[in-house]
Amino acid sequence: xxxxxxxxxxxxxxxxxxxxxxxxxxxxxxxxxxxxxxxxxxxxxxxxxxxxxxxxxxxxxxxxxxxxxxxxxxxxxxxxxxxxxxxxxxxxxxxxxxxxxxxxxxxxxxxxxxxxxxxxxxxxxxxxxxxxxxxxxxxxxxxxxxxxxxxxxxxxxxxxxxxxxxxxxxxxxxxxxxxxxxxxxxxxxxxxxxxxxxxxxxxxxxxxxxxxxxxxxxxxxxxxxxxxxxxxxxxxxxxxxxxxxxxxxxxxxxxxxxxxxxxxxxxxxxxxxxxxxxxxxxxxxxxxxxxxxxxxxxxxxxxxxxxxxxxxxxxxxxxxxxxxxxxxxxxxxxxxxxxxxxxxxxxxxxxxxxxxxxxxxxxxxxxxxxxxxxxxxxxxxxxxxxxxxxxxxxxxxxxxxxxx
Length: 404
Ligand code: PLP
Hints:
By secondary structure, the protein is α/β, with parallel strands linked by helices. The protein has two domains: 5-31 and 295-401, Aspartate Aminotransferase, domain 1, CATH 3.90.1150; 41-292, Aspartate Aminotransferase, domain 2, CATH 3.40.640.10. Helix content is 40%, strand content 17%. It has 15 helices and 17 strands. The protein has helices at residues 5-10, 37-49, 60-80, 93-105, 126-135, 152-158, 181-190, 202-205, 210-213, 238-242, 278-292, 296-313, 342-351, 364-369, 386-403; strands at 18-19, 22-23, 25-26, 87-90, 113-117, 138-142, 163-169, 194-198, 217-221, 232-236, 254-257, 262-264, 320-323, 332-337, 354-355, 357-359, 375-379. The longest helix has 21 residues, at 60-80. The structure holds pyridoxal-5'-phosphate. Pyridoxal-5'-phosphate (PLP) is lined by residues 31, 92-94, 121, 123-124, 169, 173, 198, 200-201, 221, 223, 232.
């Protein structure tokens, strides 16, 4: 398998676009990635040719759609080394974490401890805060070093007999830091805790094997993985999912319902109440098929080269502060520009056709940790080019002149 960025780009119709009369330079893939034609066509094809509700029909279209939906589940399972019944479709990474928190919460009591880190996205903070508010569980925060690395010794010290859950990001959406998931899982398990990884960013940039990591739960969303919005994945070890109560009630998640008694379906259907994201699951399956045709290792190396190129292009500038310089990190560059609000930086870059994100990145505790109220973020995907990296450096240098 070879990796050729121009061949990759040809699969993404939107990359032909111009913005403000300039070629689009899309550096916001960590927020949401663009979609290859294979995904767009798979979803259109389903709507044009074979669409009905799943699981409940006896006619041809219902059967075909159910087959496509369940085939998507098998693709996801194979993609991360899981069993088919260990994959729950949700509406996003956020919902997947909420589902776990609500379910695990049923087994927790006041004084039990949950460890998160300072580099979490709000999606992996707020659901645990709910348990703090509702049950009186204690949230403990694993610190991050100035470089943007999770402090493993401090994390180890937080673990104790009352630790019930460890919920950590596998890769920070702000710092780019990739955390040592396998080591973290081992440490959490030695303390008798369950471990959940937020893989929304990591899954995009590296092959994931949930069994090798030994995660109890691993979550991610489809739209960052070149798939559609409205679909997320909760992986849970079979025995962990079996121990969770239902999340939402409705059709398809039951065993039997009568006036005074109810039983529930086994996982994964127990957690998929109502009509699920059918087209989105099919689209995610197509994204995974498309990714299977790429040399993912070469793609990650390519992304990293772009990051290094930008980093070199911006080195030595006294008006720029980079947040997150972990030795082991993905291709995400978060930064502040002296004298400028990140929103203004992003807006000026947009005039040059360069799309970056700016704000708190749904990571307010991390912003506070680094003493900033916001930052700008350029995130690189496998379809970005060296010319785009250079265009970003040039546009940023011009943008800075507005604030100098
Ligand atoms: N976790 C991380 C690390 C993220 O970057 C994001 C999205 O930015 C999420 C969770 C939430 O994902 P979603 O909005 O797709 O539910």
